[in-house]
From TrEMBL:
One GO process term, biological-process aspect: proteolysis
Keyword line: Hydrolase, Membrane, Protease, Serine protease, Transmembrane, Transmembrane helix
A molecular function GO annotation: serine-type peptidase activity
Record-given protein name: Alpha-aspartyl dipeptidase
Keyword Magnesium: no
Transmembrane is among the record's keywords: yes
Amino acid sequence: MICLLYILRVLKLLNWCLLILILITLIPSPESKHMGETREERINQYHEESSIPVLGLREGSLLHVTDNSAKLRGLKNAKLFIKEQESKEFEVGSDLSFLLHS
């Protein structure tokens, strides 16, 4: 949690506070005994209070940011959540630079 707060402060200092990156598991494993809410449900609850977009990076993926460019790298897709909109999947290699300017 401390690490996430530090990252958010750094992003805010860099004027990238419109984007929050979260490692995410969107679909619970069928073998799981956990009956709690999914991360997607938590993000929807978060959007009840905030309009900041959330980019869900799955384990093994990263957002490579250089200058004004942001590209999805790694092994798995990412999912973008924007308040009051359907979530959208992005494939590895996608240009997500628009998130830096929103």
